[in-house]
Each structure stands twice: as C-alpha cells, then as structure tokens.
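Sequence and structure are kept together here, with a separate record for every protein. A complete record is shown below as an example:
=====
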Amino acid sequence: MIRAAIVGLGWWGKTLVESVRDGRDIRFVAGATRTPSPEIRDFAKAQGFDLRESYEDLLRSPDVDTVVLATPHSMHVPQIVAAARARKHVFCEKPFALTKADAEKAVAATQKAGVTLGLGYNRRFHPTMTDLRERVKTGALGTILHFEGTMTFPNALSLKPGQWRASRAETPCGGLTPMGVHFIDAAIDLFGAVDEVFCTSFRRAVQIDADDTTSILFRMKDGMSAYLGTMTATAGTFRLQVYGSNGWIRIDGMTHVAGASSEERRNRLFGNCTFQPIKGAAETWQAETYDVSRAALEAFARAAEGGPTYPISLDEMVHGAAVTEAIVKSATSGKKEKVA
C-alpha cells in the first residue's frame, strides 16, 4: 500500500482523493493546500487524512511515500524536482510541463533519484481506449488517414480575474491545457510522434483575458494528419474519431464540466461509440462505466512498488510537453511549427 499526500485541494484534487478512498494499492494519509478553508478541513477529516502546513512538510514526512500534484501547471516542475530530492514518488496531474526543457528537467530529477513518475492522462486507462488502441495496432481500421477530436466545456464563462485557471500564462491557447492535452496524449499513444503543428487561438465570449476558441492541425511523423478543436465557453462535449481505409470509429463522451459530481467526472467520460465499416451497417455500443482516475492512480502505485511500469513512458511525457510548446509557439507566430 502506497501512502500518498495530495497537494492542491481544489475540485480536482478532491476528486483524486475520492477515487481511491476504498482502494487497496494507494491511500491518502496527508495533504496540503495554499488556502486551508474550513470546507477543506472538513473534507480532509471526512476522508481520513491530515492537513499539513506546507508542501515542504509533506516532503519531510516519513509516513508519506508519494506526492500527488493537483496544482497549477507552472508549479509542477519545481515540485517534481523537490519531491525527487526528498526521494518521494510523484504522480503529476496534466499537463506535465509546458516546454520540452522543463519536462526533461523533471524527468532527469526523478531518474537520478530512482523514484517513479506518473502522469494523469487518465483517459488512456478506459477500456474503450484499450479497444481503440487494439484496432489501430492490429490494422483492423486499415491504413490510418486522420485522427480528430473536439473537446468543449463552459467552465471559462464562470472564471474571474485572479483565479489561476484564468491566467493566460497558466492556460495558453484556451482549452489546450485543461482539455486538449488529453488529445495530444491519445495521438502519441495511438500513432506515435508528432512532426509539426499549426494553431489558431482567440477569445470570443469569455470576460477574462484568455482564449476560448482554439483549432490545431497536426502532422504525425508517420504521415497521417490530425485535428483538435477546443472551446471553453459552450456546452460540454468530447469526441474522438479515427478514420482508416477500412472505416471509421467515433467515441463520444463528456469533459470535466464544473459542478458535475465526483462520480460523474470519474466514471462517465465515455458514452456512445460507433464503428462504420466501408461496407455494411454501423456497429454501435455504449462505453462502460469506469473510474479512470482510480485506474491511473492504482497503476502508478503498483509501478512505485516495483510492479509493471507505468503505461505512459517518460519519453512520451517529454514529447507531449514538446508538442504543447510547439502549439503555443504556432499560435503566436501564425506559422506551422516543428515539434522539437
């Protein structure tokens, strides 16, 4: 049993704690947050863990084996480096880092310390994604032509200046960091490295100084194309679609809409699925209810205890950060950008 500390107790940090409250591989024994309100103290008491004064207190604690970071993106790399120096395993929420250099710095620190690093791209763990991965890898879809995704939610409409998620520095290109990086991870997982990107991103409806409408074109190193659209000021939706020479497969679902229950955020991300072959009738089915947050944390805990390697490799983590960096650069330059 891995003894974990949660760092950051906003709505997503709480969701991570709730996902494994009856788990056998990982248990939260401590936590820390910048603003320990009475509501957060009540949550910690109800979940059975102690609130500590600071992140540094957690790193000094002999009863903590790992830290789980649900903190702003800009804090991830220094927090990972500090945890590695303290010989603590690290599970980091996405995005891992916003530049390739920062990602490499964090990975190097964990490798030097010999600790396990996990990254919270939890959608990888859903059985529907396992099925899609199998269809792609076995050639069941034929030659892959194109991968497409749309991710939307209304969350940015309720953000106020001063909140970290309202900061353009923390959330460049609007929905890229809260949602779109899941698509980037899926593209890397299913199809390998990204070669180049082109991004256009702008603000239409939100009151904060942030983009709400973002479109990204990708060219994969193996030659196929991809497209991602994100919007942060409309109703929530989630769609992935792979087009192959034998037909296409589409997965519909939901994004993490603010105000949704913890159970819904963890278990109901995937919904209707359709496979349309070149000839014949479409096959449709409903994705199963599955707690992806619990699956990711438990896979990390088993890896930290010497079990199977965490499914997202360190190279994939670094490449995902490099792709994110190229997208942000393209949005500024107005040009196609190569991924470093």
